[in-house]
Amino acid sequence: MAIATLDRAAKKGVSAIQEYALISGRALGNLFQRPFYGADVITQADIIGVGSIPIVILTGFFTGGVLALQSASTLAQFGAAAVTGQLVSFSMIKELGPVLTSLMVSGRNASGMASELGSMMVTEQIDAMRALGTDPLKKLVMPRIVATVVMLFFLTIISDAIGILGGAAVSVFLLSQDSSQYFHTAYQSLRYADILQGMVKPIFFGLIISSIGCYYGMTTRGGTQGVGRSTTQAVVWSSVLIIASDFVISRFMIGIFGR
Amino acid sequence: MSQTAVITEPAQRSPDEPAVVFEDVSIGFEGKQVLRNLSFTVKQGETRILLGPAGVGKSVLLKLADGLMRPDSGRIFVFGEEVSAMPEEQLFKLRSRIGIVFQEGALFDSLTVRDNVAYRLMEEHLPHDDIEKRVIEALRFVELEHTLDKFPSQLSGGMRRRVAIARAIINRPDLLLYDSPTGGLDPITSTTIIELVIKQRDVYRTSSLLVTHRLQDAFTLVSHRFNRETNKMEPLPEGQIDPQTSFLMLDEGKLVFDGSTHDLIHSDDPFIKEYLS
Predict the structure, then answer these.
(1) How far apart are CA A172 and CA A179, in angstroms?
(2) A-chain residues within 8 Å CB-CB of B66?
């Protein structure tokens, strides 16, 4: 009995991975096939990218601020409070900027994609689209993936910049540090490898957010309850995968660049 | 009901070629067999009414005919092409000859009525003026030309179903698939929808497969015709039935009846008798 249950669960898991790979692969393959739904890409870029700017700015600013606040007291114990800027910029650009921005965008947009596509699934709108001669992977999934990858890249840059500014605000106004020293250390210690690490991550995270959101949306079954389930699972799995893949990418990049 | 000019062009097809052929088709989901060894044919110009209790697999059957699902076994041909073995890209081309009306209409709720009806033509990148003309023609056919700029959420259930019919006929299809077009509607609205189905059948002779569990609608279809002069549906003379309309009946995934109205009414099958009573 237990083996049969395990067997069923394993088959279900493998089948889900296969379906996820097929949906993502076919959607990305459509990038190079006509028709290209450019207008849909722009619309999604507006919803996903522009719509996420306020939360990314808020998250970035307060993350940079709290980072400066927490690290300055520890660094002061070693007489190294002067490198607060360096610590904030390193942490924001290499880790917190990409990861926190992705988690925020995941919470906002993976859920949005799963619920929107899921609702279209249960109301047969996806079937109607196919019946009317349109490939939903081309029209609905591909634009979401492209828009998320591109916009998350820029959102991460915004988050990094705002985070460093947040750290500066705390360092200067609360901790009475020198602003030029803060920005000098923040800028001068950075290497291209650090920037590259921070810029590569949002590309992978964008792929994760959009493909997971669309996968759960496109495989929604069971009415409104199914839409709710898909939405939750999309956020949970995209968040977990972002954090897990962050570790893998970091290890890989450190292995290559040595920092 | 106003007569409109949704003009059918002469179809490029052999008159003897059946519109739809199901050959020994079976499909199941999660270990449960839904349709079992189904075989039937829909001839050109014929209307077949698919009856059966709720949850028996009628909608699945329509989706199989449109290539939206693939059977576990058996073969399905639409206009001579095997939809059960075609890649999705080729199916898109074939589907331009098929119109489908989904159970709840399945209108795109983020698009206006105009964009819903014009969807297929916009995807084909037809000239704007041509699209506008044909959208208005199709909406006039269902008497909803005044709803062009409304969203589906602003329409009643019956209106949504009529817009779905307009969307299905915009491309002048050779085959129409209706999935419970009157389901959940009040009797008056149901009659309006059935009148549209009869109009499409009698004016344009489109082959069709109509799923319903409402016997009243089924018998209205066989006992009425569309009068082009009065632009209204009217009963056929006493004792006459539409010869191009016949029945299929499903029970527990099996086809339990395939024949004419006369044979259906006079069937000795206990399930059919009980269903009709």
Answers:
(1) 6
(2) 131
Dihedral sign computed on CA atoms, order A189, A195, A196, A202: positive
Answer yes or no: do B104 and A135 touch at CB < 8 A.
no
**pTM of the prediction?**
0.87
Beta bridge partners of B61: none
Complex ipTM tops 0.95? no
What pLDDT, in 10s, does the model give residues B28-39?
988 888 999 999
Q: How far is A114 from chain B (nearest CA, A)?
A: 16
The CATH fold assigned to B20-276 is: Rossmann fold (3.40.50)
If phi > 0 it is left, if psi is from -120 to 50 it is alpha, else beta; for residue B250 that is: beta
**Nearest CA distance, B165 vs chain A (angstrom):** 12
Q: Tell me which chain A residue has its CA closest to the CA of residue B65.
A: A131
- Contact state of A128 with B92 under an 8 Å Cβ cutoff: no
Q: How many domains does chain A have?
A: 1
Are the C-beta atoms of residues B6 and B204 closer than 8 Å to each other?
yes
Q: Which domain holds residue A92?
A: 37-257
Which of A99, A116, A100 is CA-nearest to residue A213? Answer: A116
φ/ψ of B35, rounded to 5, equals -125, 135
CB contact under 8 A, A133 and B66: no
